[in-house]
């Protein structure tokens, strides 16, 4: 058993990297990885984790890092949550798994019931199914939308990332994820995401939003008729695409278009969900603005690192599936008992520790720090986000807005060598993303900000 005092020490510690990085123990494991794991399972960080607590991780050589990507959006409640650990252990004492299509376990029903009550769908009276990954959630959300509407076409967006399976890599815009495995699946069309920072020069916000809405009409006229579209699939804040929030005014207009044409609106909340935005879902904001989605796909932070994802939709939508494809949704491991036990504790922690409020506070502090850096460095063109999901876009100059991916790549490598884990995003790989566990301390946040500042300065000096 780990020493509890030592784990507490890690939870409250600050980043510290000493000696050669990666250290000898990490390098030995990285050498074995290179021999045994496909290089296409990409990892650009020489970081070999041993343990984690809160927002901190420690590697096998004893170096400590503040994690600003949270296992890429998975650790909203933080590493090593004692209640999660205890719940998973207790469940393991009884059984690991029972397939939901064969037998029912209470944890599945308890978690579905709670999410049904919390998920802000348009209908409001919900049903939920569980699978294992974000890509599986999107696959099933699309399947449900097609079954309900009787239509076969989907509209996704520029900059979108929805997964790496055959369907979701087709929905994904960045083609490095599907290059070499074409042809893509048919029946997928692409609208232009409302990326206000890169709207036509000189446009006001209102003109920019109308510009992006006009693109949808163009697709209906020259791509696929509206009456043949089953659903729009949209990230409320694009993740891999560059941490770009969809303006609520745009979503409201899109909701109206969907209602007029009988089209489903699917919110991909895989990365945005579970208190990250200051609400349980960004769709909560959508509902407050009168534009709730029909279907919500969720994953990542749903179970604090135990593989789990879900799809929630109104009862009428969900129950139509069985009429069309008997037994057509579900899967062997969906709603695994260990994962559901973890998921229930995650909801408790979010509620009891007021992590949605904490997300707003952390996000405010982070944005203030990033905006101070923006004042200092001309290469930071934009700071944007909702709650604690924030992106910094780096450009070669603010007038042309030419992306600066080589600077971002250098900043990331410099930062990790100093004890800060950050990651790039954006179609041009020129955005740094902030997805820090919501339990991060103010001292850890400030330490990370200092490392980022130093890393930008050093990286710029090397490139100039």
CATH superfamily of the domain at 85-352: Type I PLP-dependent aspartate aminotransferase-like (Major domain)
Helix percent reads 40-55%
- Ends distance: 50 Å
Determine the structural class based on helices, strands and strand pairing: alpha/beta
| Sequence of strands across the biggest β-sheet | 4-12-11-10-7-5-6
Give the strand tally: 17
State the CATH topology of the domain at 85-352: Aspartate Aminotransferase, domain 2
- Low-confidence residue ranges: none
Number of helices: 15
Task: State the major sheet.
Answer: 7 strands, mixed
Shape: globular
The top level CATH class name of the domain at 85-352: Alpha Beta
Q: Which architecture of the domain at 85-352 does the CATH hierarchy give at level 2?
A: 3-Layer(aba) Sandwich
Task: Report what the structure shows.
- The mean pLDDT is 95.
- The protein has helices spanning 4-11, 24-36, 70-73, 82-94, 106-118, 134-149, 166-171, 205-222, 248-261, 282-288, 315-324, 337-352, 355-376, 405-418, 442-463, and strands at residues 49-53, 56-59, 64-67, 126-131, 153-157, 188-191, 229-234, 237-238, 244-245, 264-268, 295-298, 309-314, 380-386, 389-394, 420-421, 423-425, 431-434.
- The protein is globular and about 65 Å long.
- The protein has a 7-stranded mixed sheet with strand order 4-12-11-10-7-5-6, with helices on both faces.
- Helix 13 packs parallel to helix 15 (442-463) and helix 14 (405-418) packs across helix 15.
- Among the domains are: 1-14 and 25-59, no CATH class; 85-352, Type I PLP-dependent aspartate aminotransferase-like (Major domain) (Aspartate Aminotransferase, domain 2, 3-Layer(aba) Sandwich), CATH 3.40.640.10.
- The chain is of the alpha/beta class.
- It starts with a helix and ends with a helix.
């Amino acid at each position: 058993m780990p020493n509890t005092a030592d784990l507490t020490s890690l939870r409250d510690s600050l980043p510290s990297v000493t000696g050669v990085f990666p250290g000898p123990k990490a390098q030995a494991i990285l050498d074995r990885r290179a021999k045994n794991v496909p290089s296409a399972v990409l990892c650009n960080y020489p970081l070999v984790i041993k343990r984690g607590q809160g927002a901190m991780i420690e590697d096998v050589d004893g170096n400590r890092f503040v994690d600003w990507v949270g296992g890429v959006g998975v650790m909203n409640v933080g590493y090593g949550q004692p209640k999660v650990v205890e719940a998973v252990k207790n469940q393991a004492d009884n059984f690991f798994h029972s397939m939901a299509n064969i037998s029912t376990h209470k944890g599945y029903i308890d978690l579905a019931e709670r999410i049904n009550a919390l998920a802000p769908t348009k209908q409001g009276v919900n049903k939920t199914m569980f699978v294992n990954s974000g890509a599986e959630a999107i696959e099933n959300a699309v399947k449900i939308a097609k079954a309900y509407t009787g239509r076969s076409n989907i509209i996704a967006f520029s900059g979108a990332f929805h997964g790496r399976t055959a369907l979701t890599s087709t929905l994904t815009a960045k083609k490095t994820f599907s290059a070499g495995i074409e042809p893509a699946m048919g029946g997928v069309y692409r609208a232009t995401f409302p990326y206000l920072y890169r709207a036509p020069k000189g446009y006001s916000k209102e003109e920019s939003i109308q510009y992006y809405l006009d693109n949808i009409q163009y697709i209906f006229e020259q791509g696929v008729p509206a009456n043949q579209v089953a659903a729009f699939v949209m990230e409320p804040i694009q993740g891999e695409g560059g941490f770009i929030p969809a303006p609520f005014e745009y979503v409201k207009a899109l909701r109206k278009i969907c209602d007029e044409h009988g089209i489903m609106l699917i919110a991909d909340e895989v990365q945005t969900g579970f208190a990250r935005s200051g609400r349980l879902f960004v769709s909560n904001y959508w509902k407050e603005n009168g534009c709730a989605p029909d279907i919500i796909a969720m994953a990542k932070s749903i179970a604090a690192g135990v593989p789990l994802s879900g799809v929630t939709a109104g009862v009428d939508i969900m129950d139509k599936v069985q009429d069309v494809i008997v037994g057509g949704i579900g899967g062997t491991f969906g709603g695994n008992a260990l994962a559901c036990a973890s998921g229930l504790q995650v909801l408790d922690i979010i509620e009891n520790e007021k992590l949605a409020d904490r997300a707003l506070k952390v996000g405010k502090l982070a944005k203030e720090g990033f905006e101070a850096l923006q004042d200092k460095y001309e290469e930071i063109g934009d700071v944007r986000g909702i709650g604690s999901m924030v992106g910094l876009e780096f450009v070669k100059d603010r007038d042309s807005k030419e992306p600066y991916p080589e600077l971002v790549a250098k900043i990331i490598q410099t930062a990790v060598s100093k004890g800060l884990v950050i990651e790039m995003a954006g179609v041009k790989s020129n955005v740094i993303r902030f997805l820090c566990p919501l339990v991060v301390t103010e001292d850890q946040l400030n330490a990370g900000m200092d490392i980022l500042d130093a890393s930008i300065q050093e990286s710029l000096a090397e490139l100039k």
